[in-house]
Amino acid sequence: MNRRLGPPVTGSVLTLLFGAVGAAPAIAQIPGDLSARVEAEARWFPQSPSDPAQVRNEASIAITPEWELEWGDRRHLITIEGFGRLDSADPERSHADLRIASWEYAADTWELRLGIRRVFWGVAESQHLVDIINQTDLVENPDGEDKLGQLMANFAWIQDWGTVDLFLMTESRERTFPGAEGRLRSQPSVIPNRSLFVGGASTGRADFAARWAHTLGDWDVGLSHFYGTSRDPRFALQAPQGGGAQLLPVYDLIHQTGLDVQLTHGGWLGKLEAIRRSGQGEAFTALTGGFEYTLVGVLGSVADVGLLAEYSNDSRGQDALSLFQNDLFIGSRLALNDVQGTALLVGGAIDLDRGSLFLSIEGDRRVADGWTIEIEGRVFGNTEPTEPLFSFRRDDYLQVAFVRFF
Amino acid sequence: MTNDRWSSTLARLAPIVAASAGLAASAAPAVAQESASTRGLEIAQEWDRRDSGFGDQTAVLTMVLRNRHGQESSRELRSRTLEVEGDGDKSLVIFDRPRDIEGTAFLTFSHSTGNDDQWLYLPAVKRVKRISTSNKSGPFMGSEFSYEDISSQEVDEYTYRFLRDDTLNGVAVHITEAVPVDKNSGYTKQIVWRDQEHLRPLKIEFFDRKQALLKTLTYEGYQQYLGQYWRADTMKMVNHQTGKSTDLTWRDYEFGTGLTDRDFDRNSLKRVR
């Protein structure tokens, strides 16, 4: 494995691709820390698409440059992180974003953070219910783990009884979606660059959030509330004259209260996330809870195997936009603990109402200093026309990315 | 539980029983054993006492990993440690190389009894994760150092037995045995060579769960800081069972840099660079 993916092979092929970036002169003169992640990605879909407008396969390159400057005894920090992707097939997936452009100041009992930032809340593996500050950059990956930058002022009050974070946000972002040519999209596709804001929601309004988080021995607890323009849109079906039907994202003004709890005890992690949301149709409750147990040094090796199981429920039942309205996720995390840092996460979610299946594999391995290879594969099985996953029924895929770190 | 309580009661009673038995021949091995464990503990405690009071320390580390064919790969990291009175230290480890994990950081609260608390910061997704610390025996960054080898060493984490005095490379040494208390340890025992003058560890042999010699750690280039604290420049770990080795070199040691608890909390972990 190592020999096949070793530096001589990857080096000669990919130096051509990334050589220009590495050759950038004068970088040494800039104060602070400049780094970049550059990736070349290929997605292979074994099946032809459901819609002839969609492409068969796609390839893309992406860059994530980052600059950081720290001063004043580490009390001041400026971070700028950009992102850009060029995709061979889908113009919507060719996109750029300023993910972070922030200044942070740390005093003894408080911190002030201003600018465009990324904030993550939560503990679960299969979905992130509580996480709400940033909009999802869905065109990047159907798993929704990629996020767009959010403009905010964030004050953190740090006390013995926990940290209270207050957020004032504006310029909320609209979710990105694959275009008509892209795979892994809804059927019909989402109208690009158009959204509907209802009930007082808007991108220009002020959104608020507050969160208390604390560690009590084995317990890590977070309690949060958000009031503002929803990050998750609803969809309205639009059938313009002479054109095919498309989906229009609709954003509501919502209240969302969230709770996240993790218990860490020995090799066990217990996880719970729960939300209550109102303002988007009927008020509803959703939760994800489960555990992860890590087996250390399996079969006399130095590898670790983590076993995960999470159950998700959404009180809206089958009307939920969520894929996780009554689902069981089971997975395993493998860490070889080798020099290459090889790691693999395999998992599957089964819909307990409809029986549909979602299988996923993600892995990465360092192939040389500054080089990694990342693989990702997903299978959508047993889907019915009435559920969201049905759109993906012919979109099983395998993705391979070579990543160079500068 | 009941067994634990009984054994600790017996341990407290043992010296009294031995004393009242006087010169009874049957009690002699018990006395010898008691004094060996007392002496072993005393050496560990004395080293801990001499190494206390530094407040905080920072250092830069380089790891060179070598496989049995001599192929090398390296790691660069920085460490910040805060001494905590009456408990284990707080520590922060930040990775600089390899580049794909640059900015990844571990925040650890060591405890003299019970599991440590540990959080992992993942810079690519700007997330802090609380992680399990039961994996003490696993390799740290693919190296021959395990998590328990590089974590803060607390006196209460082992039981001790003094073995003998000897010389190592011409230096007079005490040799003691340290048995980990934690069931999750990858070792059944460690044999520790300390120089008699300063009680600095010079060499440690690690024995695996099958009681076989697993690894040898040697310390080189001791330097004294602030007229009190001894730190080795190089720690060489050799795995006898796999033929792999890791050299860990330390530089830019600084003490009393003014770090506080606030430099070791979840908020600071998010802006650690």
Query: Structural class of chain A, please?
Result: mainly beta
Instruction: Give unreliable regions of chain A as ranges.
Output: 1-25
Major sheet of chain A, described briefly?
A: 18 strands, antiparallel, barrel
Indicate the mean pLDDT of chain B. 85
Low-confidence blocks of residues of chain B: 1-28
Class inferred from helices and paired strands of chain B: alpha+beta
The percent of residues in helical segments of chain A reads under 10%
Say how many strands of chain B there are: 13
Percentage of residues in DSSP E strands of chain A: over 45%
Helix count of chain A equals 1
- H/E element order of chain A: HEEEEEEEEEEEEEEEEEEEEE
| Nearest-integer average pLDDT of chain A | 89
Amount of helix of chain B:
10-25%
Radius of gyration of chain B: 20 Å
Separation of the first and last Cα atoms of chain B: 44 Å
**Shape type of chain A:** globular
What would your notes on this structure say?
The complex is a heterodimer of chains A (406) and B (273). Chain A is mostly beta strands and 406 residues long. Chain A has 1 helix and 21 strands. Chain A has one helix at 7-22; strands spanning 33-44, 58-71, 76-87, 95-106, 110-117, 150-159, 162-170, 196-197, 207-216, 219-229, 234-238, 246-251, 253-265, 268-278, 284-295, 304-314, 326-335, 343-351, 357-368, 371-381, 397-405. In chain A, the strands form 2 sheets. Chain A has an 18-stranded antiparallel barrel. Chain A has a 3-stranded mixed sheet with strand order 8-12-11, with no helix packed on it. The longest helix of chain A is centred in the first third of the chain and has 16 residues, at 7-22. The model of chain A is unreliable at 1-25 (pLDDT under 50). With 273 residues, chain B is α+β, with helices and mostly antiparallel strands. Chain B contains 4 helices and 13 strands. Chain B has a 13-stranded antiparallel sheet with strand order 6-5-4-3-2-1-13-12-11-10-9-8-7. Chain B is globular and about 55 Å long. The N and C termini of chain B lie far apart (44 Å). Classes of the chains: A mainly beta (406), B alpha+beta (273). At the A-B interface, strand 1 and strand 13 of A face strand 6 and helix 4 of B.
